Amino acid sequence: MKQIAKIFSITAAAAVLLSGCIKEIVPQGGKASFDQANEAEGSYDNFVAAITNSLAGSFAYRPAAQWPIDYGYPSFFLSRDVMGQDITLEEQDWYVTQYGCGTSLGPSYALAQVPWTYYFMWVKSCNIVLEMAGDEPSAERRSGAGIAHAMRAMFYMDLARMYAPKSYAKDPNAQTVPWVGNDTQLSELPTTPRLTNEQMWGKILEDLDKAEQYLADYKRPNVYTPDLSVVYGLKARAYLTMEKWKEAEDYAKKAQQGYTVMTEDVFNSHTDGFNTPNGAWMFALTFKDNDDNILQNDADGSWGSQMIIEVSPSECGYAANYGQPKRIDRHLFETIPATDFRKKGFIDFAIAESFEKAAGDTLGALRKLEAYTDDPEGILTTAEATTSGTVGGLELKFRPKGGEHANQYKAFTVAVPLMRVEEMKLIEAEAAGMQDEARGIALLTAFAKTRDPQYVYGKHSAETYGSTYAKPFQNEVWWQRRVELWGEGFAYYDIKRLDKQVIRSYAGSNHIELYRWNADVYNKVEGTNYPDWMTLCFPQTQTNYSNIEPNPIPVAPTATSPEHKW
Question: Which of 165, 215, 234, 530 has a Cα-to-Cα distance from 98 of 20 to 30 A?
Answer without folding.
Answer: 234
